[in-house]
């Protein structure tokens, strides 16, 4: 059951990110419209799902990290926390405001990976 849950979480994350990531390559009004749609529809829907999962334990599937945490936790570390994010920066800063359980999970994930996060390269997205 744990492996199923891990796979399900990764699959759902990939559903969101594969729809959203191509928007990075767009320009002008088309990009603005995609950012708006992403932050008004795609991301909030997924975050609402993750809010429930994040309330269940220390990490996504129990009390220790799994590969699902590295996929989903990277959403926080690579997008939300990334001060070099050029795509929708204002929206990333506030996107977790209505999801306290998921935000707390993300902070636990970042704390668990503090050494790596402090020493990795800093690159704009």
Write the layout of secondary structure elements.
Blueprint: H1 2-20, H2 28-54, H3 67-80, H4 89-94, H5 100-112, H6 114-119
Mass-distribution shape: globular
Please report which band the strand proportion falls in: under 5%, 5-15%, 15-25%, 25-35%, 35-45% or over 45%. under 5%
**How many β strands by DSSP?**
0
Structural class: mainly alpha
Q: Could you spell the SSE succession in H and E letters?
A: HHHHHH
Number of helices: 6
Radius of gyration: 14 Å
- Terminal Cα separation, in Å? 35 Å
Task: Give structural notes.
The chain is mainly α. It is built from six helices and no strands. The N and C termini lie far apart (35 Å). The model has no long low-confidence stretch (mean pLDDT 88).
Index terms:
globular; about 120 residues; mainly alpha; 6 helices
Task: Provide a quick synopsis of the model.
This protein is an all-alpha fold and 125 residues long. The chain contains six helices and no strands.
């Amino acid at each position: 059951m744990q492996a199923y849950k891990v796979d399900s979480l990764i699959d759902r994350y990939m559903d969101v990110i594969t729809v959203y990531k191509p928007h990075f390559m767009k320009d002008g009004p088309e990009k603005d419209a995609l950012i708006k749609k992403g932050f008004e529809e795609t991301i909030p829907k997924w975050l609402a799902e993750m809010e429930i999962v994040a309330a269940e334990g220390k990490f996504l599937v129990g009390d220790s990290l799994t590969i699902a945490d590295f996929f989903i936790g990277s959403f926080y570390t690579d997008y939300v926390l990334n001060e070099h994010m050029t795509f929708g920066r204002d929206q990333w800063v506030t996107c977790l405001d209505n999801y306290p359980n998921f935000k707390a999970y993300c902070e636990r994930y970042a704390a668990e990976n503090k050494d790596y996060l402090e020493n990795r390269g800093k690159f704009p997205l």
